[in-house]
Amino acid sequence: MKVIKSVLIAVSLALVVMGAHAVSVEDFSKHREFYNVKISPDGKHLAVLINDEGRKTLAFLETDSFEVTYTLRGSERDQAGDYFWVNDERVIVQVEQVRGSFEKPLNLGEIFAVNYDGGKRKMIFGYRSKGGIVLAGHAGFLLDNLSGDDRHILIRKQLIDRRSDIRPTVVRLNVYNGREKRLKRAPIGYSKFLVDNEGQPRFVAGLDKDFNAKLFYSKGKNQDWQPFGEEFEGEFSPIRFTQDNTGIYALKSVDGKPKGLYKYDLATGKESLLYRSEIADPTHSISSSLNGVYGIRVDEDYPSYHYIEPDLEEAKLHRALIGAFKGDKVSITSMTRDQRLAVVHVSGDRNPGEFYLFDTQKMSAKFLLSSAKWINKSELAETEPFRIKTPDGLTLNGLLTIPRGKSKNLPTVVLPHGGPHARDYWGYDAQVQMLASAGYAVVQVNFRGSTGYGKSFEQAGYGHWGTKIQDDILLATKYVIQQGVADKDRVCIFGASFGGYSAVQSAIRTPEAFKCAIGYVGVYDLEMLYNEGDIKEHTWGDAYLDETLGKESADLVAQSPVHNIDKLKAPVLIIHGKDDLRAHFEHALALKEALDKRSHPYEWLVKDKEGHGFYNEDNILEANQSILRFLKKHIGD
């Protein structure tokens, strides 16, 4: 398929010129207008998930005319979440509940089904369903859409409970009447299934009570689970069966190095390495309803893609689109059965997200929707990756965003990510762009302990949350100062969750480096994690904390901001939600009390009904305005 030149021409014709207004803090505080677009298997209809005055609505349109055929609006209590086309007429929807105690909707595993014209509407799974053999308190999540079966899907069914030792079950669910057929129960809790090409669950991976990963395998239908992978050292994660079901594609890591993509023969045990980065794990699989997983994305610095079956038409199209959109991230959200039409999502550091309808016969791309049409892309700042070496030999990947038209001696915000076992990626980030638009250089760094760079890199942060991790953050700060980008006398640090902890802890560890610190839904007393928040509610919670945080009480105290306020010089802004289940509100109260005892200057913004990150747009705007005022007060703009 000779598509590259044609795609380049078609995309250039489809691009829409945005308005010339400057982007405001209000613009960065809004939820996106369109969350997803998917096309029906026959190509006659589109489904679009829309933000409608703060609530999600699922609309169906005719592909040719864009005439609306039906709109599934949320009720006072419910709204549409993620959705999937099952056949030419029917869509299943994961229901999100809007509950009184939370601003952010919750997915409790209910599944609703509806036709594109609004016909045959029915709650087919969940505690409020009426037509199936469904026990109260069970949640269901799509596992496989069973290609070739227009009436059934596979779901993972699990009791609604925070305990991770409850074993889920694979269930075949009728999408019209909600009837169930149980196929297989997992042998371990907190687990995920891999289904073969005949719809049989064959692999399951889970965590035991000691936070150890376990892998089990079934030879086929009606065959019992048996341990798999005892001969493997390191990590082994199956991601797809081969077309003939005789082998699997898997991600494997040895000696703590980044994971490679392997093909593994189940009969002989022979494995073949297809691709491995020396720096980064694969970020995620590239998949479709037609071909399953057909590639992987890897983010060393910018995203790159590697294909399991490069001769697939969809893989060829994806590769061509990557070139056409000049390095932006590209995903094919859905494709028609005949592979003629595809919906393509494109995003990048200066693109919050756009949807296109691509015709593979006409070789043309038609612009559909922008996720945030009020964002003027020409006003956004570029984000560029960088790498630095630590004194003990680790390579740290970072991101630097510099305000448009500026380059030197800038007020700077250091923005450590949450987790700590997570990572930052190149791409659009509303908070980063908000700060850059206000005149601040923004520094992000994937410090030791971050995921995505191999297990050894992650384990290098274990027990060092408040020490070596913070040293890595300071190293990135020094780097941008040495490069002449940051004014060393105008640097603040700001983060959310673990990033909020890092903001205060780094300002304590190196008090001369930062002129202010902003903690957003942060943890500030490490010992409190054993008693407050939702980590402790998991079966493996204590084991996870023991391994990643450390067991010695003296070390936890020494690395906890609440016990070391006497070393702090920077004024602090504390932002928190009263209903935070991860970083419990008690953390914010403990930090406030410690600051009060020392008469240390701070500002305080707390909101009812908000959890681990604000969801209500008014609250997001108020938080963003407070952040910008606080930064301007202490380092200018």
From TrEMBL:
InterPro entries attached to this UniProt entry: AB_hydrolase_fold (IPR029058), Peptidase_S9_cat (IPR001375)
Keywords assigned by UniProt, alphabetized: Hydrolase, Signal
Source species of the chain: Shewanella fidelis
GO MF term (any one): serine-type endopeptidase activity
Domain of life: Bacteria
SUPFAM superfamilies: alpha/beta-Hydrolases, DPP6 N-terminal domain-like
Residues annotated as signal peptide: 1-22
Protein's name in the database: S9 family peptidase
PANTHER family the UniProt entry points to: DIPEPTIDYL PEPTIDASE FAMILY MEMBER 6, SERINE PEPTIDASE S9 FAMILY MEMBER
Keyword Hydrolase attributed: yes
One family name in Pfam for this protein: Peptidase_S9
Matching Gene3D superfamilies: alpha/beta hydrolase
Gene Ontology biological process terms, A to Z: proteolysis
Domain Peptidase S9 prolyl oligopeptidase catalytic: 426-636
